[in-house]
TrEMBL record:
Source organism of the structure: Natronobacterium lacisalsi AJ5
TM helices/strands, residue ranges: 51-69, 76-97, 153-171
Protein name in the entry: Metal-dependent hydrolase
UniProt keyword terms in alphabetical order: Membrane, Transmembrane, Transmembrane helix
């Protein structure tokens, strides 16, 4: 999935908490955006292995959420949103294709690394590749949905993210050719 899709998934996941506790909407949205993006910084290392934790991230998200519920500070809430967004990103990479430049060729049997079991999780290809039409549709749907909860500075962030998603999807296959 596209990085923007991961961000929108994280925003929608924390949206119910922002509705219940609107005073935490800002740290929730910042944490979700950063957490949705963070795992892909491992593109500089061993992509989808170094910073992706699809299995180990779940207990971390539960612990961070429990701490946020107990402490109820903006920092704790933002950190919990970050960890949740990062875990959702890593886990949802398994429903797409592999990390290769041309994933529509289905040449990889590696979607994301499971550090707990010490092996790669195979790609499910429900979203055929990052930037596929279904990925763009999901990004736009979730981005628009997040606008019902988050406003202010998040509105232009989401709208720019939607525009980036659509442009990337439009040129995705050409990008692989150009590279």
């Amino acid at each position: 999935m596209m990085a923007t899709t991961h961000v929108f998934v994280a925003l929608v996941a924390v949206a119910p908490f922002a509705v219940v506790a609107p005073e935490f909407a800002l740290p929730l949205s910042i944490g979700a955006v950063l957490g949705g993006l963070a795992p892909d910084f491992d593109v500089l290392f061993d992509h989808r292995r170094t910073l992706h934790f699809p299995v180990a991230g779940f207990p971390s998200a539960l612990v961070a959420g429990a701490i946020a519920l107990e402490i109820r500070s903006p920092t704790a809430v933002g950190l919990a949103a970050f960890v949740l967004g990062a875990w959702l990103h890593a886990g949802s990479d398994a429903i797409g294709a592999g990390p290769e430049l041309d994933p529509w060729n289905n040449s990889s049997d590696r979607a994301v690394y499971d550090h707990v079991r010490g092996r790669w999780i195979r790609p499910r290809r429900w979203i055929r590749y990052d930037g596929a039409p279904e990925d763009a549709g999901l990004a736009v749907s979730l981005g628009v949905a997040s606008l019902f909860v988050f406003d202010g500075w998040m509105t232009p962030v989401v709208l720019v993210g939607v525009a980036i998603s659509l442009c990337y999807a439009l040129f995705r296959r050409r990008i692989a050719e150009w590279a």
